[in-house]
Amino acid sequence: MKKLFVCLAFPFLVGLIQIPTLGELLWGNETSHHFNYWAHLGVSGGSFLVLGLVLLLIYKGLGGTSIDWSWKIIGIAVVAAVLSQTIQFGLSIITKTPTSDPETLMALHSGIGSVTVLTLLVFSPILEELLFQGILQQRILGKLNPYLAVVITAIIFAVIHGYAFGIGTLELLFSGLAYALAFNYAEDLKCPMLAHGLSNLIVMLLLLWSA
């Protein structure tokens, strides 16, 4: 019954974990010099704490467990992040797809840059991996063949983030596969969380470097 309820609530949870990202960009009536820093921090940080607790309770309620940090987890996370971003970078070169993100770049150079960095590197990776790898891959799809669960999780991750089928969705599929495989191999949620955060760090550094 718990698993059925979570399956039905999953699309709603996907929408909810996007709330922290609302604080990472400047709002319509703001500029890089005129903004409400504490409102942005409140939206991102406050929603992260609430949603993180909710997802953690759901995960624990479904029987989820975790393991302590180890060099193995860190190593797998680094490899997953580097490989996924290398593949995405290669695809963008082959397809000549622009990788610029002016809204994020403007936010990073504004006074809310610290909120943007926290959301990209900490808040979003923790919430998304708790939902996708912990709740979806491990608990909802846990009785399937592990690699089938990995593929299904990665596809759902890519489609939800891509919004439309295209090269962007394909690139996100490789990220989803990297995080799902990292979790499948390490059997610890902290591994895909770290991999996701490192991936976002690489993207952010490339964005700043190419600006």
UniProtKB/TrEMBL annotation:
List membrane-spanning regions: 39-59, 71-94, 106-127, 148-181, 193-210
Q: Which GO terms describe its molecular function?
A: metallopeptidase activity
Q: Which parts of the sequence belong to the CAAX prenyl protease 2/Lysostaphin resistance protein A-like domain?
A: 115-202
Q: Which UniProt keywords apply?
A: Hydrolase, Membrane, Metalloprotease, Protease, Transmembrane, Transmembrane helix
- Which Pfam families does UniProt cross-reference here? Rce1-like
**Its family?**
Belongs to the UPF0177 family.
Q: Can you say what this protein is called?
A: CPBP family intramembrane metalloprotease
User: What species was this sequence derived from?
Assistant: Fructilactobacillus carniphilus
